[in-house]
């Protein structure tokens, strides 16, 4: 059903229900952006289209699948569609907390979410975890050329607090011209993907030029034929008003977060090795290095206390 246009400043926004690769979807669209979510598939942002006078361009990586299979709770992430933007929460790697398993890539990417359209033209998605007794939600608004998400985790009555790692697992299309935009003060990285050109897990390098056996400019992707993967975190935390993102084919994407809640930044590069895909993710996160239990022991993640909540914003600004 197509709802009437809703005014947001000078830009009109519309909401409608649709279908994407065989799964029921909801869409927010204005003159510059069309965003498509799949509530039953972990509220995955399946498609993010940038629009300008030249036409439309898909920003998110798309797999060759024409029909998506909705994952069951606790599924292995790699067994399902590896495209679009999935929510990782409350962990990235599978781990144990309070004698309970936090599944691979967290719980919420493989759970159905409730979706509600609000009168101001925004969408709210929410999901409840019986295992850990939290509600995780996001309110999303289109504002001209920006997609703005306000997240909240609320821990209900509980004996223990809940440590968590959240990151937007947003896979963008890789091309030969992709260039990362990273704050200049972030000048060193910590490698967490052993075996690639960055060597063993834990190696630290300068950024953007890493000197190993040869000078590597980490601002760019290698060709798909390189057949490798990389993941690293910056050793410095994000500061207030920091912007990060990429530019590619006359489109620039800038992201920002509430740095006091989401202080860490990582990058994932898939240069042909994983499923033969060519994509990347720029991942602000509330904790490092992927395992929530270890992050908590190292005091490197956020913690929500019983009967309280934590809220943060994440913005994607698209210049097309």
Report on this structure.
There is one protein chain. 2% of the residues lie in helices and 48% in strands. With 320 residues, it is an all-beta fold. The protein has a domain at 6-166 and 286-319. The strands form seven sheets. The chain has an eight-stranded antiparallel beta sheet, with no helix packed on it. The chain has a six-stranded antiparallel beta sheet with strand order 1-2-3-4-5-6, with no helix packed on it. Strands 16-26-25-22-18-19 form a six-stranded antiparallel beta sheet, with no helix packed on it. It is globular, with a radius of gyration of 19 Å.
- Broad shape: globular
Termini, distance in Å? 28 Å
What class, by secondary structure content? mainly beta
Give average pLDDT, whole number.
Answer: 94
How many whole angstroms does the radius of gyration measure? 19 Å
Helix content: under 10%
Q: How do the SSEs run, as a string of H and E?
A: EEEEEEEEEEEEEEEEEEEEEEEEEEHEE
Q: Enumerate the strands of the largest sheet in spatial order, edge to edge or round the barrel.
A: 10-11-12-13-28-24-23-17
Total number of helical segments? 1
